Amino acid sequence: MTHIPSVLILKALGTEKQMATPTKLFSLCSLLMASLFALSSSVQFDDPDWYFWFPLYAAACGVNLINGIGVLSSKPINKIAKVAQWLGVFLFFKVVVEDSVNGIAGFWSLDLKERVVREKFGSGFVVNSMYLQLKAASVQNGHVKRKEKKGTKYVECGMAILVVVSYGMSFVFFVLQKGEVKS
Predict the structure, then answer these.
(1) Is residue 63 within 8 Å of residue 130, measured between CB atoms?
(2) Separation CA 72–CA 142 (nearest Å)
(3) Angle, in degrees to the nearest 10, between helices 24-42 and 155-171
(4) Are 51 and 34 in contact (CB under 8 A)?
(5) 27, 53, 48, 57: which is closest to 136 by C-alpha?
(6) How is 33-82 classified by DSSP, letter by letter?
(7) Which residues contact 47 (CB under 8 A, 6 or more apart)?
(8) pTM for the structure as a whole
């Protein structure tokens, strides 16, 4: 009697988990976000609450860097991504409350000269980046339901949009507004 490998049986039944590998676009976007988060973490030490923002940006940088080089399935990296995502949510609400209590810029303000607006966008970028990284890892590990597979095609598109928006806003702030901040 011949032995049929279980992989062939699973393939024939169509139940084999497909292990997706990160695309070049997703990897490039992850590396670009890692560089932006590295820069963001390096300028946090002059903030009065740097102990919140430095770990947020450093964790986001690490997750994007490691996933950018193609290690999507690492469980410790996914745990760090979840912690960074929740820290980002917490800091987003902290900044929104601080803004509304002090009446600095308003929730819908796009005035990047205001610290609270920059922090609101920074925490939002981290939250969105970690969401997309976790979604990509779940696709790679095969933990996505059949109905959700259609939506997973948009993870790399989401990362590309995130890169364009984050770098575009950085360009506007540093080049067009010359990095001037209100005191």
Answers:
(1) yes
(2) 12
(3) 40
(4) no
(5) 27
(6) HHHHHHHHHHTGGGSTTHHHHHHHHHHHHHHHHHHHTT-TT-HHHHHHHH
(7) 53
(8) 0.82
Single-letter residue type at 26: F
For residue range 153-180, list pLDDT tens digits in order: 688 899 999 999 999 999 988 888 877 7
CA distance 130 to 140: 15
CA neighbor of 59 nearest in space, from 91, 37, 89: 37
For residue 167, which amino acid is it?
A: Y
Report CA dihedral (84, 74, 42, 98) to the nearest 10 degrees.
0
Question: What is the DSSP track for 91-160?
Answer: HHHHHHHHHHHHTSS-TT---TTSHHHHHHHHHHHHHHHHHHHHHHHHHHTT---GGGGGGGGGHHHHHH
Looking at residue 8, what is its pLDDT? 39
Residue type, 40: S
Please name the residue that has the structure tokens 């940006």: 57
Q: List pLDDT tens digits, range 59-108.
A: 999 999 999 987 656 788 999 999 999 999 999 999 999 999 999 888 88
**Side-chain half-sphere CA neighbours of 100 within 13 A:** 7
User: For residue 111, how many other CB atoms are within 10 A of its CB?
Assistant: 13
- Reported as a pLDDT band with limits 50, 70 and 90, residue 46 is confident
